[in-house]
């Protein structure tokens, strides 16, 4: 039995990277003390700020590089694999990448992933988002090896609506797929758990989805409701609210192969490009 204890941390990030890290650290310590060997935080953990000019001014400082090092030090201090759900980093185009960082227990960056699918939507006459105005989309899927040799696929938020990406990760051998997110309240209420359970069921992977929740410093509201789901679509742990906190679940990685043996959907059908 390959049993891995994982944790998803729910946050309410603001515009200060240092303050956001300080806010997250107690939850990281508690999750590590509870035995979690893989801890994941939400999208925009490092900074959630829809004021483009203010965000870019923060990114232009040396503070961001220092923050990334500090998150690596946190992983080393706790002796865990730590997925920083995302932080904004400058792109050559003048925009920024929405980037996940996976730190190994030695504090080094083991993998990173730039969000591919950007959230350009119009939810109502007053609520619309155009991430592409600020962010540069990533170009490739990322599959990496994490604790206990687990194959970990990296995705971010809006990616969850694009099933071919998850199919590619599954075909490449993913056992766990991370979905750090900052879902809006309307889309979260309507689609969040349904989409996550669908991705778990169709890929036969564990899905770990830490979320931002509540009313943020920049005025934005996010759905919260962080969740961990098994390869059969069963919810193993979740937060039924938008307050900061964390959840922990034991993932028996052998269940991935068992689920794929019961319903061998990956034995045929259309192939996807693997990362």
Please give a structural write-up.
With 275 residues, the protein is of the alpha/beta class. It has one domain: Carbon-nitrogen hydrolase (Nitrilase/N-carbamoyl-D-aminoacid amidohydrolase), CATH 3.60.110. It contains 6 helices and 16 strands. It has helices at residues 17-33, 52-59, 63-78, 163-171, 185-203, 254-262; strands spanning 3-10, 38-40, 81-90, 96-103, 109-114, 120-122, 128-130, 142-145, 151-154, 176-178, 206-209, 213-215, 221-223, 227-229, 235-238, 245-252. The strands form 4 sheets. Strands 5-4-3-2-1-16 form a 6-stranded mixed beta sheet. A 6-stranded mixed beta sheet has the order 8-9-10-11-14-15, with helices on one face. β14 (227-229) and β15 (235-238) form a beta hairpin. α1 packs parallel to α3. The longest helix has 19 residues, at 185-203. The two termini are 27 Å apart. The model is unreliable at 271-275 (pLDDT under 50).
**Broad CATH class:** Alpha Beta
Helix content: 25-40%
Helical/strand content category: alpha/beta
Distance between the termini: 27 Å
